[in-house]
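Task: sequence in, structure out. Protein: Tetratricopeptide repeat protein.
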Amino acid sequence: MNMFRNLFKPSLQLSDLDVSENKRIIKEALRSLNCTGDWQKDGNDIIVRFDFQSGHFGIFISAQHPQIELSFLYFGEAKMEEINLVRHVCNQFNINSDGPRFAYSVNEETNVIDLHIMTTLLLDQYRAKDILSLAMQNCFAWQNAFIRNFNEVRSDARNIGTADVERTLKDAGRELFLLREMELTTQETVPGWRHDEATAATLSQWMVRAFGMADAVFSELTIVTDKVMCLDDSTAIANYNLSDALIADNSFVRQKAMLDLVFFLPSHPTKRRRMMFSLQQADSCENILYYQVVATLLPLNISADISFHSQETQVQSRSILLAYDLRSAKQFHDEFVYMWKEAKSKMANGEQKQLTDEQLLIANIVNINTAEYIYRGKVLYRQKRYYEAVAYLENVYKRLQLDFHKLKKRERETFFDVAFWVGFCYNALHQYERAHYYLAYSAQSNSIEQIETYVNCLVNMGDFRTFMQIGEQINRYVEIANDYEEGENPMPQSFLNFLQRRKAYMLIKTMQLDEAEDFLRNMLDSPENKEFALSQLAHIQQLREKEKEKEEGREGENTPKIE
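Result:
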């Protein structure tokens, strides 16, 4: 009945919602919610504080606008030394929430950080109770989500040994601002430096970086947009820029497009291969247009010279996010040169401590072209634009490798970092063999991230060396643990858990099911690994049932039929 009554009530007029009217509406709503308000006047504005379901709330009624502000005060607290973590989590929630705002204040008496939630509401006299009740219930839900996320960030910060997560992200954001794709216009480059520079996302580059096919011979390309266009010139196909299907005049002209590529490979020169492309506009940000490329290499049919287990009979697919930068090459280059010269100046004046992380990366690099390529590759790497990043970083690797015997300690450290970044990119692009070449340096690294990436690469390849590498790392973990008191091991327990899970996965992948089952049963004693172990034990049982069904099927085929 109330629903029908509401249909005939007068519409809300914002001009009627002044301070006195909002106060009247809120008083009635609080009375209906059995809440007692403590009212205070602040100039022309009014503040009321009250408790609701053990939560401390406040409402600010402004004389400047009809909306009111609901605040959930002191919903949590943190230690002063965790202020950077609090700031980071607040920023993340403020970015991702569509209404509430998260803030903190410092209590100087107790030296703790208090946490608060604020949200803006528009009330009317008929629904004020329901609006307030729902908003406060939502505040409790946000409280639980915030505390859960904060605890996760706190744990991660302890594992990586930093309390300033926001500073790390800020430095990464600064690098993203400094550089994108650009041409070197004022410096001479060494011979061979430019031959594979990523000036465009061409089909020939795509084939090499996404599928490792450097010797593809292009035959036909069909481009399906608002119309259908066909290319049959191999050079034109090789130089076709993928962004041309979606972007023109520095803006998207359509949301999606399709490509159909026909080509040949020297391994089977008489067999036509086809690759289907789906290009889709993605979310964009300032000065960058993102688009997703999904390419599927269709399999060959089984024949006398192509067996069932051949790689050519398997469907291969890649999904990669590409980006089209709108800022000019000169803008990026001028900004980089300024930063590079400032880093050199600080080094010359003995002001190393004033260098930012981005300046430290290039301060010891003598060649400006090499330094610029490191920046350009690293910014794309951090942006997860691995397809584009690998072109720059691989050039840096090759250049530093030629001069490795001349490199100083800091430059050699940069060389190994670059090798890891290149390997990480190829691993993300499913080019595992190429990734392994670069990640092999990481086997004896002190970086847990690098070791885990190297192990993942071995697992992705299905390489038997995975077991040896995991065994070596577990022994290394135990040796280090023996040198420290309990709880002081610099290598976290999560690293050992990772190695154990990877070993179990690899045992199952290679169908060593008995060994995998014994190993997983031992992992059940670990709370962190119990859920994983149970799921994998169930998976082993399914695999055994499938094997049993196959064996029974084969036995049935061999049984003579009685007519």
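The first strand starts at residue 38 and ends at 42.
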